[in-house]
Amino acid sequence: MKAGDDEGEQSSQQPGGEAAGGKVQSKLSAAASAASSSGSGWTKVSCPCCVSEWVEPLVLLKLGPKVGPETKRWVIKLIGAPQKDGGAGLLAHPGEDACGNIIVVSAPRCTLLRAAEELGLCKTYENGDMEAFSYSDRDNFKDSDNMEVFLTSAERQYMVKYELDGLRAQRDLRVPGLSESCVLLKRDNIWRKLGSFGVIVDTLPLHNPKKLKELGEGWYAGNQLVQPLDRINEYFGSCVAFYFSFLDFYTWSLLPPAILGMSIAYFSGDVQREMVESVSGSKAAEDQGEPGLVISGHMVQAVFSMIWSTVVMELWKRRSSSLSYRWGTMNLAERFAEPRPEFHGELGVNPVTRRVEPLFSEGQRHLRMALVSVPVVGLFLGLVVLGMTCFYWGEARVQQLHKDWDSLLSKALLYVPSVLHIVYTNMLATVYKTVAQSLTEYENHREESAYENHLTGKVLVFTFFNYFAVLFHIAFFKQDVPLLRKRLASLLIMSQLVNQVTEIVIPYLVDRFISAPNRMESEDDPEEDKFRNQRSLPPFPGLFGEYIELLVQFGYLSLFSCVFPLTAVLLLLNNLTEIRSDAYKICKLFRKPFYPPASDMGVWQIAFEVLSFVSVVSNCWLLVLSPRLQKKCQDGEMSSTNLLLGAVIVEHFLILVKVILAALIPDEPGWIRKKREHIEYTSMQALKHQKLQTEES
Amino acid sequence: MKAGDDEGEQSSQQPGGEAAGGKVQSKLSAAASAASSSGSGWTKVSCPCCVSEWVEPLVLLKLGPKVGPETKRWVIKLIGAPQKDGGAGLLAHPGEDACGNIIVVSAPRCTLLRAAEELGLCKTYENGDMEAFSYSDRDNFKDSDNMEVFLTSAERQYMVKYELDGLRAQRDLRVPGLSESCVLLKRDNIWRKLGSFGVIVDTLPLHNPKKLKELGEGWYAGNQLVQPLDRINEYFGSCVAFYFSFLDFYTWSLLPPAILGMSIAYFSGDVQREMVESVSGSKAAEDQGEPGLVISGHMVQAVFSMIWSTVVMELWKRRSSSLSYRWGTMNLAERFAEPRPEFHGELGVNPVTRRVEPLFSEGQRHLRMALVSVPVVGLFLGLVVLGMTCFYWGEARVQQLHKDWDSLLSKALLYVPSVLHIVYTNMLATVYKTVAQSLTEYENHREESAYENHLTGKVLVFTFFNYFAVLFHIAFFKQDVPLLRKRLASLLIMSQLVNQVTEIVIPYLVDRFISAPNRMESEDDPEEDKFRNQRSLPPFPGLFGEYIELLVQFGYLSLFSCVFPLTAVLLLLNNLTEIRSDAYKICKLFRKPFYPPASDMGVWQIAFEVLSFVSVVSNCWLLVLSPRLQKKCQDGEMSSTNLLLGAVIVEHFLILVKVILAALIPDEPGWIRKKREHIEYTSMQALKHQKLQTEES
Question: Which residue of A has its CA nearest to B642?
Answer without folding.
Answer: A641
